[in-house]
Write a structure and sequence with these properties.
transferase activity, cell wall biogenesis/degradation, three-stranded antiparallel sheet, L,D-transpeptidase catalytic domain-like, cell shape, eight-stranded mixed beta barrel, Muramoyl-pentapeptide Carboxypeptidase, domain 1, 4 domains
């Protein structure tokens, strides 16, 4: 493998330095004369090529630049110092400091080994900042996110040519306001720690309308960490104090109900470790690096699975929000993470039951009673409805069931009255639902993986608003036909199905959500292991 890599480096150098010479124009067309490929290399160049061959990004870079070093020679001192300072900021990004081996700035400036060691650190830093440390699917196969980072050899070239190498590296980090807010929250991790010496808030339960001596220390502890609620009566648990408690609860990952109960008081009194908050922020920073190539200021739909919320963001600001129901916690029903584009609004959708649901849930019911689930049609491969008395359901099992199951458009259709399509290999989409009562629950993980929308008509109007002056009328005309119809969204709207248990709200305050699928815990472990893999 190393010999093959070395050969490829030499071929790249040869190709890069083979030029076409054009003699002066004469009476006829000029003839290109190919220069002979370069075949001779110095001992230093051979050593550099051999050392770089094991790292594809370095092999490509050195092969394309004639085996010119990055960190050798006194002229490269600024690059070495810039790289050292950049990797020193790793903890501020939630990247373990052990991720990057220590650098010896006093190393011999002609030492090939030092050149390659430093170049490998550079490659690791470039990759980490432009697409994260961890390959998403290695954490959980349901993290389908595709990381699109710039070509690393090109970034190495830009670094080598940069007037200020340090600034070039520092400017690689994501600049989205959410990333910067997460960084600030990580560096200010003690901001939610109440100063020592303040009286404890007494145990109990406080809600609006209550009054007592225990409210005063509760107010004082909240005020000391930025959740002030001024009041003429410091002993009254009034509406302003309830709102301050709710903001604090959201910041520490508790349901923001504004009631100061036992869990809230334990957090406020410092009886609960804040490690979980820091871990959630570290994981969120990595997830943001996965999405570094996405334009998150442009118009898009953002579905945060642990938050049970979907929103439309435009020019960096939220313009629409609705509650959602996401996939159940069972491994085969969880909602995957990925990005796509919503292409269609589909009023009066048919529900083509996924085969996994058809054979696991409906086939056993049909075997017990052929007339069960009467709202569903059994159809053949051509889409023809087959009378149930013509089918011996007992003959079939999950592997040989030859039919499909489908539900006609109706108010009782499992998809409700509209779905939002972004065709993908996992058959995931957003849709209405007749089961509205579930949106009142705090935990909303009930579906088979698709996302149910609490306000689907309003979502449709928003998505169609860029292509018509009256999106309500456009949608209603199609809906009133009672037939399934596909309205193309122009232009298509990016949709991001994401999983953040810590994320800033509009004012930069970090909100916390439960790790409903346990993915954050797995990703945090992977990040810590990446810090040992140096």
């Amino acid at each position: 493998m190393r010999r093959a890599g070395l050969l490829s480096v030499m071929l790249l150098v040869s190709a890069a330095q083979s030029v076409v010479a054009q003699p002066p124009a004469a009476t006829g067309p000029a003839l290109g004369v190919a220069a002979a490929p370069r075949l001779n290399f110095t001992a230093r160049e051979m050593a550099l090529a051999q050392a770089a061959a094991a790292t594809p990004d370095l092999a490509a870079y050195y092969g394309s630049n004639g085996l010119q070093p990055i960190f050798m020679g006194p002229q490269a001192a600024e690059r070495r110092t810039g790289l050292l300072e950049a990797v020193g900021t790793a903890p501020a990004h939630g990247i373990p400091s052990g991720r990057y081996p220590s650098m010896d700035l006093a190393a011999d400036a002609t030492d090939i080994a030092a050149e390659i060691d430093q170049a490998r650190i550079l490659v690791r830093y470039l990759r980490d900042m432009t697409g994260g440390m961890i390959r998403p699917s290695s954490v959980d196969p349901l993290i389908k996110r595709e990381v699109r980072r710039p070509a690393i050899p090109g970034l190495i070239r830009d670094f080598a040519q940069a007037p200020d190498p340090r600034r070039f590296l520092l400017d690689l980090q994501p600049r989205h306001p959410a990333y910067l807010a997460l960084q600030r929250a990580l560096s200010g991790g003690q901001a939610l720690s109440v100063p020592a010496g303040l009286p404890r808030a007494p145990e109990g339960l406080w809600r609006v309308g209550m009054r007592g001596e225990g409210v005063a220390p509760l107010r004082a502890r909240l005020d000391s960490i930025g959740f002030a609620a001024p009041s003429a009566d410091p002993l009254s648990y009034d509406a302003a104090l309830s709102k301050a408690v709710a903001r604090y609860q959201a910041a520490v990952g508790l349901p923001p109900d504004g009631i100061a109960g036992p869990k809230t008081l334990r957090h406020l009194n410092g009886d609960v470790s804040d490690d979980s908050r820091s871990r959630a922020i570290i994981v969120a920073l990595e997830r943001m690096r996965w999405m570094a190539s996405e334009d998150l200021d442009a118009r898009h739909v953002w579905v945060n699975i642990p938050e049970y919320t979907a929103r439309i963001v435009e020019n960096g600001a939220e313009v629409f929000r609705t509650r959602v129901v996401v996939g159940h916690t069972d491994p085969d029903r969880q909602t995957p993470e990925f990005s796509d584009e919503i292409e269609f609004v589909v009023p009066n959708p048919r529900w083509n039951v996924p085969r996994s649901i058809a054979v696991k849930e409906y086939l056993p019911q049909l075997q017990a009673n052929r007339y069960a689930v009467s709202q569903l049609d059994v159809v053949d491969g051509n889409g023809n409805v087959i009378a149930r008395d013509r089918i011996d359901f007992g003959r079939y099992n999950a592997s040989n069931f030859p039919y499909r199951i489908r539900q006609k458009p109706s108010d009782d259709n499992a998809l409700g009255l509209v779905k939002f399509m972004f065709p993908n290999p996992w058959n995931i989409y957003l849709h209405d639902t007749p089961t509205k009562h579930l949106f009142g629950n705090a935990v909303r993980a009930y579906s088979h993986g698709c996302i149910r929308i609490a306000d689907p008509f309003d979502l449709a109007y928003n998505l169609l608003s860029k292509q018509t002056e009256n999106p309500q009328a456009m949608f209603r005309r199609a809906l009133d036909t009672g037939r399934e119809s596909w309205i193309r969204i122009t232009p298509a709207v990016p949709v991001h199905l994401v999983y953040f248990t810590a994320f800033p709200n509009a004012d930069g305050t970090i909100q916390r959500f439960e790790d409903v699928y346990g993915r954050d815990a797995m990703l945090y472990d992977a990040i810590q292991k990446a810090g040992l893999d140096s």
